[in-house]
Amino acid sequence: MLVTDTDPAEPDAWAQGLPGLDLMHDLRCQAADFSAIAGIVGAAAAAGAAIDAVRADRSAEGVQMRCRMLGISAPAARALAETLEREGWTAGRAQIEHMMIARRSSVR
Fold first, then answer.
1. Residue 100 gets which letter from DSSP?
2. Does domain 29-103 sit in CATH 3.30.70?
3. Residue range 90-104: average pLDDT?
4. Where are the domains of the chain?
5. What per-residue confidence (pLDDT) applies to 103?
6. How do beta strands 95-102 and 62-70 pair?
7. Distance between CA 3 and CA 101 in Å, rounded?
8. What integer is the mean pLDDT of 12-29?
9. Residue 76 in contact with residue 48, Cβ under 8 Å?
10. Residue 93 DSSP symbol
11. Listing from the earlier edge strand, what are the strands of the sheet with 95-102?
12. Whether the Cβ atoms of residue 32 and residue 62 lie closer than 8 Å to each other
């Protein structure tokens, strides 16, 4: 199957064809301090992502952050990582892991 993204805010077409599963993105990044969390979450929401969970841990380099998102395509999640770096919310490039998870409404 050939999959093309016409609108990066739309979920991936191939993922929609998998009943009971949702595409989730796990964004991991380094921020200078805790104040960056609001900017990172705001940028994710502006990209159309629904935030599922956020974790932030202090480290020697600042704050290690992990943000789980639903509702955007894989290309949109990668573009978000680029935006966060370009706008100075992250120290370096954020990493994105894409996962297929059981849809909550289908879990018993």
1. E
2. yes
3. 87
4. 29-103
5. 78
6. unpaired
7. 20
8. 77
9. yes
10. P
11. 50-59, 62-70, 21-31, 95-102
12. yes
d(CA 91, CA 11): 28
Would you say 14 and 3 are in contact if contact means Cβ atoms under 8 Å apart? yes
Nearest Cα residue to 77 out of 15, 21, 31:
15
Closest alpha carbon to 55 in 41, 43, 67, 42: 67
Type of residue found at 79: A
Cα dist. 27→55, 64, 96 in Å?
A: 10, 11, 5
| CA pair distance 81, 84, nearest whole angstrom | 5
Tokens of 74: 């894989």
The whole-model pTM stands at 0.76
More confident position, 12 or 97: 97
